[in-house]
Design goal:
14 strands; single chain; six-stranded mixed beta sheet; alpha/beta
């Protein structure tokens, strides 16, 4: 499946890009919210499973309306634990470390920051997880998923469409890199995707990407480490990254990366 082969449905705020695999459809919801969230709906035989949740009230309502004719069987809540007013009666699935991340860890800190930044527009309530899942295969609504636990939460393979979901990629935008060791971990993860030969990579903050994009991101991460070694401080590092990647979006993420590399 080519990442650019989809049908687009324009919604009032966001838009839905629909990828048709025959027996399975993938609905990629571009929220157009303040943090560029993406939410994914995997549909098969009229049943649907959602990967991640929107976290702004207007997006919650818009996506619920879009899903009204589908039988939503469950939601996989990984890195985005906020937005609990969205489909409150649908069963929520997560690993234990994802629960900890959203309730007490780095995810909780992000939720607090977003609440302060966006106020009443942001749904800061945290999804209550109904079913704790472990690594390996899980079947929801007749659709198989393969769960891989990460340091923060978990990634999701969708074998029927040869795709994988992870939190962040973005081949032409900055992303949060928590130092050289974290960069190496991301590189190892992306090399694993390349080895497995996925057709599509789904992420929470970007349109669908492919293995060519993964290779581009690996080169960026390797260079990020090189730049960090050559710089004496945060200001110099940020300026050099901006100089080498002038067209990259996500400056707020670059600020966070700078903080991780230079304390």
């Amino acid at each position: 499946m080519n990442k650019n082969t989809f049908e687009t449905v324009k919604l009032a705020k966001g838009e839905m890009n629909i990828y048709d695999f025959g027996a399975v459809k993938l609905h990629a919801y571009k929220t157009n919210d303040f943090i560029d969230d993406e939410v994914f709906v995997v549909e098969k035989n009229g049943k649907a499973v959602i990967i991640e949740s929107p976290c702004f009230f207007d997006n919650n309502q818009e996506l619920e309306q879009y899903l009204k004719d589908m039988d939503v069987e469950g939601m996989l809540v990984a890195y985005h634990g906020a937005g609990a007013t969205f489909l409150p009666d649908v069963p929520k699935y997560a690993t234990q470390n994802a629960v900890d991340y959203s309730e007490n860890g780095g995810g909780k800190a992000l939720i607090d920051n977003f609440t302060n930044a966006f106020g009443d527009a942001f749904d800061s309530s945290v999804h209550k997880i109904d079913k704790i899942i472990s690594e390996g295969r899980v079947t929801i609504g007749g659709i198989d998923f393969v769960i891989t636990q990460t340091q923060e939460a978990f990634d999701v393979e969708i074998p029927e469409i040869n795709a994988v979901y992870t939190h962040m990629l973005g081949h032409d935008c900055h992303s949060i890199v928590a130092g050289a060791a974290h960069a190496d971990a991301i590189i190892a993860q992306l090399n694993d995707y390349i080895q497995k030969g996925y057709d599509l990579i789904l992420t929470s903050h970007y349109t669908l990407e492919d293995l060519k994009d993964a290779k581009t991101k690996i080169a960026y991460l390797e260079n990020l480490k090189t730049i960090a070694k050559s710089c004496a401080g945060a200001a110099e590092f940020k300026a050099e990254v901006q100089k080498q990647y002038p067209d990259y979006s996500g400056e707020n993420y670059l600020d966070m990366t700078t903080g991780f590399f230079f304390g």
